[in-house]
């Protein structure tokens, strides 16, 4: 197998059925079928609805990825799949499908960590990963700071959210403001016409004492409650809620904490590259603020394009290709789907 | 060679059928581990008969009804294998397979075939003396079933309510393979029979925090 392996990656940890195909660091196809519309009216992802959708979408999405990439399944060198963390019933559909491909094509299987895949995907956009690098992953399911020495076997968690994920806070505040699910893009758009300093919302875990114990951890639950109180007080007083100002001030509070801690973590670890991934990485303010702050400390920022930041199969294929190139041992056919797979386990 | 699998019960069942007979059959040892056990069992089945993946010319899968998570593992495996090998994938109602197994083991109809549906309910269907489905599949409480002899999980789980028969307790892949090869069951698309909607509630307005 060459150092440009052709790898098919499957991602089903949440509500996106993703199948990606890469050749080394080159993206050939990134097919995604999303069940997000089916979850919208429930205000969040319903696991059973997601699992049913994965089963229906799996084979058509594999076929679509092959068509787009212009390859036959038989040409693939290896299969990679998200084996965790995520919704267990959803993960199981992808893992079982990947195992069937491994048997049916007689190719090696790599069960990989979803979070490490969010890091590896950047190679498809910006070439080889700077290692070590500091990765900040922010989405509806995760908010983590990771020190990446080797994306295929050495990822160290520095901090994570102690309550809600960043994207979850966006969803909940969007709901308070009567904006649709998922909330991220809607808050971002509203915020553009609002003032980020209109309301001084709290910055979680940034006070002196909190910083001692939780220097690189996040908390967004208190912020969410503060926004709710502020909106309720307005409503109780019979005054209109300035949606754009609330959105902008809330978004500023989230992005302020995220970027402050990410840059602090990079500097503290002597790392010169900060990589941001996950759905919230698509937030326009987060990107700008990160670049401003990082530049002041001589840290470079890498953010993959939005389509690669949200959950997709290409990121799994990207990490799989790296596993092949760096000669890692393939996974056994009996690997489980592990809903709470720790980031220290990059390969199952 | 036909590869048959059923994941509609807590156990995984895999069989290979060739030249008019079942040449291999295996049942998993651990319950509730479909995701871990199915793929190695398929690989082991091929090894056991000295076959390679290209020898498989069709896949048959039990489509339930059964607990959803395991059922999906079986069906996505069958569908993806079909895609990878370029071979057809057939489905059969797992209750129908259980009924065929019951008739073959001497159970006389009419009778009910049952699979555990959890939440104190059973998936069930009724069958005539030749194992042809009369009614169902449905999902109901054991006390709501028609008064007929019962095979499957029902009498094991609810011995106080349902009379214990002498028939088989589960559908299995060997019977599925035979029944498909001998056209004794209706062939279906490899679509799961759920019989229940997903648990999900549309949320009310946001809760007040103050
Ligand atoms: Zn993710």
TrEMBL record, chain A:
<dbReference type="InterPro" id="IPR000905">
    <property type="entry name" value="Gcp-like_dom"/>
</dbReference>
<dbReference type="GO" id="GO:0061711">
    <property type="term" value="F:tRNA N(6)-L-threonylcarbamoyladenine synthase activity"/>
</dbReference>
<dbReference type="InterPro" id="IPR017860">
    <property type="entry name" value="Peptidase_M22_CS"/>
</dbReference>
<keyword id="KW-0808">Transferase</keyword>
<comment type="function">
    <text>Required for the formation of a threonylcarbamoyl group on adenosine at position 37 (t(6)A37) in tRNAs that read codons beginning with adenine. Is involved in the transfer of the threonylcarbamoyl moiety of threonylcarbamoyl-AMP (TC-AMP) to the N6 group of A37, together with TsaE and TsaB. TsaD likely plays a direct catalytic role in this reaction.</text>
</comment>
<keyword id="KW-0408">Iron</keyword>
<keyword id="KW-0963">Cytoplasm</keyword>
<keyword id="KW-0012">Acyltransferase</keyword>
<comment type="similarity">
    <text>Belongs to the KAE1 / TsaD family.</text>
</comment>
<dbReference type="GO" id="GO:0005737">
    <property type="term" value="C:cytoplasm"/>
</dbReference>
<dbReference type="GO" id="GO:0002949">
    <property type="term" value="P:tRNA threonylcarbamoyladenosine modification"/>
</dbReference>
<dbReference type="InterPro" id="IPR022450">
    <property type="entry name" value="TsaD"/>
</dbReference>
<feature type="binding site">
    <location>
        <position position="118"/>
    </location>
    <ligand>
        <name>Fe cation</name>
    </ligand>
</feature>
<keyword id="KW-0479">Metal-binding</keyword>
<feature type="domain" description="Gcp-like">
    <location>
        <begin position="27"/>
        <end position="317"/>
    </location>
</feature>
<feature type="binding site">
    <location>
        <position position="184"/>
    </location>
    <ligand>
        <name>substrate</name>
    </ligand>
</feature>
<dbReference type="GO" id="GO:0005506">
    <property type="term" value="F:iron ion binding"/>
</dbReference>
<dbReference type="InterPro" id="IPR043129">
    <property type="entry name" value="ATPase_NBD"/>
</dbReference>
<dbReference type="InterPro" id="IPR017861">
    <property type="entry name" value="KAE1/TsaD"/>
</dbReference>
<feature type="binding site">
    <location>
        <begin position="137"/>
        <end position="141"/>
    </location>
    <ligand>
        <name>substrate</name>
    </ligand>
</feature>
<protein>
    <recommendedName>
        <fullName>tRNA N6-adenosine threonylcarbamoyltransferase</fullName>
        <ecNumber>2.3.1.234</ecNumber>
    </recommendedName>
</protein>
<feature type="binding site">
    <location>
        <position position="171"/>
    </location>
    <ligand>
        <name>substrate</name>
    </ligand>
</feature>
<dbReference type="Pfam" id="PF00814">
    <property type="entry name" value="TsaD"/>
</dbReference>
<feature type="binding site">
    <location>
        <position position="188"/>
    </location>
    <ligand>
        <name>substrate</name>
    </ligand>
</feature>
<feature type="binding site">
    <location>
        <position position="114"/>
    </location>
    <ligand>
        <name>Fe cation</name>
    </ligand>
</feature>
<feature type="binding site">
    <location>
        <position position="311"/>
    </location>
    <ligand>
        <name>Fe cation</name>
    </ligand>
</feature>
<keyword id="KW-0819">tRNA processing</keyword>
<feature type="binding site">
    <location>
        <position position="283"/>
    </location>
    <ligand>
        <name>substrate</name>
    </ligand>
</feature>
